[in-house]
Fold this protein.
Amino acid sequence: MAENRGPITQLAAVIGSPVAHSLSPAIMNAAFAAADLDWTFIAHEVAEGNAVKALDWARRDGLIGLSVTMPHKGAVAAAVDELSDVADRLVAVNCVVIEGDHLIGHNTDGGGFIDGLAHDSGLDPAGRRAVVVGAGGAARAVVHALGTAGAVDIAVINRTPARAEAAAALAGEVGRVATAEAVEGADLVVNATPVGMGPDDQAVPVDPDLMNPGQVAVDLIYHPLATPWVATLRERGIEAHGGLSMLIFQAARAFTHWTGREAPVAAMEQAARAELAARAAD
């Protein structure tokens, strides 16, 4: 793993499109500062189809690591030299460790979700029943992570049955395709769709009437911090959390991959919340 070896500032970056509004630079630069590392982190716009060129740039310019966001996670998975078991299973990379010319692809999204869930609610998925709404990249990472963490039933709800089946399969024997009625028997309900993200989007991914106190809900959307769904559930006495902790903890895992050190999570969370507050004030 990379170490801070001298006075030359080390460079890491997030690649994606669009990427200008990514919170990653604020989060990662706060982490580097808290760890007293002379490293800096930038957002690098990379158009779809140019992921391989971005990897060549990272090698050539001696970057120590990359974060990868949409639309490049699949393309990077196909182009790196080595994949972790999780990244290979998901066919998606969100973190690249650069060791000389050797690129190692990881996926920290699912682990970040589990870490964030523990941070926010203390919930251990082992032995629990979960529902995941959605079947995209984030949903797939969550389904896989919940299966690995020992959930006994993972129901996937999605409008496209084939996508739901593919996502549910990532949980192994405990994964299944379901309808909204599965929510009533769940311990944990996760929204992994963009429903409720827009400033005027008052839609909800799951009917709040299907849920009751004692359940835990997580909306992977982090901006706004509380979507209409989260706000409604809280008003009804149901524990509900946004997706900011998943974002922070997946970044924390990337930090550890790059540095070999425990991530300064408190500093990362403070920076993320400050950045979101500043944007809301603009």
Summary: The radius of gyration is 19 Å. DSSP finds ten helices and twelve strands in the chain. The chain has a mean pLDDT of 95.
